[in-house]
Write a structure and sequence with these properties.
42% helix; globular; alpha/beta; four-stranded mixed beta sheet; 177 residues
């Protein structure tokens, strides 16, 4: 992976699943700490999902953007909608499993949720998929390596978008053309 692409580790109030590690997979914090961070405006976005809170650190994202890095955020539709409403410039990519049966199999096979939670996640997935057209890009996550290549292609395309080269004539031609 490129050094200018960083992953934003989200905060959550849920308990770690399986081999998840604090600060790597999520920052696992108490609900009181999470609500304190909300009051201090420390999240770029946050939402209650499946009965637990999730949020993205505003300071981390802004610091990385200031350094010229691309920040990958693994957020749900609610979070993306909140960020878009702030006017924060971002590229939105909806990751979609190839079909509902594969999504269900993935949730069952990870063996971290009860049958009741899986049903809730599947119900919520249908609601989220209905909002996929709000995103700029769609990546079908059938094969992880292919999905990663697709996301990398989007990043490269966005880097080369003409609107990102405001001063290209001055920089290239010295302003003479």
């Amino acid at each position: 992976m490129r050094k200018d692409i960083v992953y934003s580790v989200s905060y959550t109030t849920r308990e770690p699943r399986g081999n998840e590690r604090h600060g790597v997979d999520y920052f696992f914090i108490s609900e009181d700490e999470f609500k304190k961070r909300i009051a201090e405006n420390r999240f770029l976005e946050y939402a209650e999902v499946h009965g637990k809170w999730y949020g993205t650190s505003k300071d981390f994202v802004l610091d990385q953007v200031d350094k010229g890095n691309h920040v990958i955020m693994d957020i749900d539709v609610q979070g993306a909608e909140k960020i878009l409403k702030t006017g924060f410039e971002m590229v939105s990519i909806f990751l979609l499993p190839p079909d509902p049966e594969i999504l269900e199999d993935r949730l069952i096979n990870r063996k971290t949720d009860s049958e009741e939670k899986i049903k809730l996640r599947l119900k919520n997935a249908h609601l989220e998929i209905a909002k996929a057209r709000q995103f700029q890009y769609l990546v079908i996550n059938d094969d992880l390596d292919t999905a990663v290549k697709d996301v990398m292609s989007i990043i490269i395309a966005e880097e080369n978008r003409m609107s990102r080269y405001n001063d290209y004539i001055e920089n290239y031609y010295g302003g003479s053309k």
